[in-house]
Amino acid sequence: MWQLFRTGKMWHRNGLRDRYDVVIIGGGVHGLATAYYLGQRGVTNVAVLEKSYIGAGASGRNTAIIRSNYRTPEGVAFYDESVKLYEGLSAELGYNVLFSQQGHLTLAHTDSAINGLRVRAEVNQLCGVQSRVIWRDEIQALVPALDCSDRPRYPVLAALYHAPGGIIRHDAVVWGYARGASRAGVDIHPFTEVTGIDVANGAVTGVRTTRGEIKTSIVLNATAGFCSTIAKMVGLRLPITTHPLQAFVTEPLEAFLDKVIVSSNLHVYVSQTDRGECVIGSEIDPYTSYSHRSTLPFLEATAHHTLELFPCLKHVRVLRQWAGICDMTPDYSPIMGGVPGLAGFYLDVGWGTYGFKAGPVSGRRMAELIATGRTPELIEPFSITRFSEGRLVGEKAAAAVSH
Fold first, then answer.
1. Rounded to an integer, what distance in angstroms lies between the CA atom of residue 98 and that of residue 173?
2. How many other CB atoms are there within 10 angstroms of residue 151's CB atom?
């Protein structure tokens, strides 16, 4: 432990052991959060395996918007616990994750969109989450730079105002969880790719990697966009498709936007970071792919819709553009828990475009499941068996614009 503080390293660099109680595949926020909460429960013979650097996947390629104003009671309760965990995360980890609860507005430009916001607001309020429909005058007062006139092709008519929503520093969350897990005794292994998973008599027995073989009886698949490829290693076919998701960032500007703005009709979202950059994104690309390449059509279309909302940005330069990949389920809700007939293999996948919002609650509840063998009530609705049992958790209305 002294070595960790003396060198100032964020986490230990240990050798790969030949046996672990738990192996977590995926070194993003979900895998690291699960490792951290396992450590808090005293389960410390744990390895986190990441084929690249820590946070290289979806955790490092997202716009880190946090909210809980979802559509279904199951989703609202789940994400509300995550928001509460995020609120206390800096203090718990002893590391500032820069969570700014500046408020989140989902805009409506049509009557049908307003009806959708009303439904979400009522569900949110019944579940104890701050969320209400507001109109043009209040929207303009909250966001003076937003064009609330009749000039745009699709004028702003109303918005769902979710005061607890905001933005966070995604790399700080990843590093904080990694540091916390390491201090609890968890081994973190970047640049360690999983090449196979061994199964015998209906149970997991080990993992093969580019650095050697590991014996284990528990494996957690927390690999986001590549979750289907990992699942195939145990003969499991997931009801998931992987799509690219793109975003871009502008040059730094003076502070003018202290709310997260999402348009459910224009499929665009805008926020401003503490550095002054505008982070702008849109919906997933309309094709399945593992590509991380950004495209000009996305940039043109998203910039166009952004200028409908914020014409004041017309002369602002774009600094960089990037793409990540998202694991989408048919009902836009995650898959969490064990797999019937395959002992020791657990799933924390299918997060689509909203996985970062769920990092703390997913880690906490998956750790509870792994440590106790009992499925927490909060994640029971997201079992993989829901697809065969016809009990889908439809969140498309709350995730139609990715954030």
1. 9
2. 9
State how beta strands 278-282 and 268-272 pair: antiparallel
Last residue of a domain, one of 311, 327, 343: 327
- 235 in the same domain as 247: no
Residues spanned by the domain of 307: 101-163+241-327
pLDDT of residue 9: 79
User: Contact at 8 Å (CB) between 400 and 267?
Assistant: yes
Q: Is the Cα torsion angle 122, 123, 127, 132 positive or negative in sign?
A: negative
Verify that 272 and 387 share a domain, yes or no. no
Domain check: are 308 and 258 in the same one?
Answer: yes
Rounded distance, CA 76 to CA 33, Å? 20
Torsions phi, psi for 363 (to 5 deg): -60, -45
Structural domain contains residue 82: no
Q: What's the confidence (pLDDT) of residue 401?
A: 52
Mean predicted confidence (pLDDT) in 26-54: 97
Task: Encode the chain in three state secondary structure.
Answer: CHHHHHHCCCCCCCCCCCECCEEEECCCHHHHHHHHHHHHCCCCCEEEECCCCCCCCHHHCCCCEECCCCCCHHHHHHHHHHHHHHHCHHHHHCCCCCCECCCEEEEECCHHHHHHHHHHHHHHHHCCCCCEEEEHHHHHHHCCCCCCCCCCCCCCCEEEEECCCEECCHHHHHHHHHHHHHHCCCEEECCCCEEEEEEECCEEEEEEECCEEEECCCEEECCHHHHHHHHHHHCCCCCCEEEEEEEEEECCCCCCCCCEEEECCCCEEEEECCCCCEEEEECCCCCCCCCCCCCHHHHHHHHHHHHHHCHHHCCCCEEEEEEEEEEECCCCCCEEEEECCEEEEEEEECCCCCCHHHHHHHHHHHHHHHHHCCCCHHHHHHCCCHHHHCCCCCCHHHCCCCC
Q: How many domains does the chain have?
A: 2
Given this model, what pLDDT does residue 8 score? 65
Residues 111, 310, 129, 395: is their CA dihedral positive or negative? positive
Quickly state the pLDDT bin for 105 (edges 50, 70, 90).
very high
Helices 73-87 and 359-372: angle between axes, nearest 10 degrees: 100
- CA–chain centroid gap for 112, Å, is 28
User: Which two three-digit tokens encode residue 308?
Assistant: 């409908």
- 128-153: pLDDT as tens digits: 999 999 999 999 999 999 999 999 99
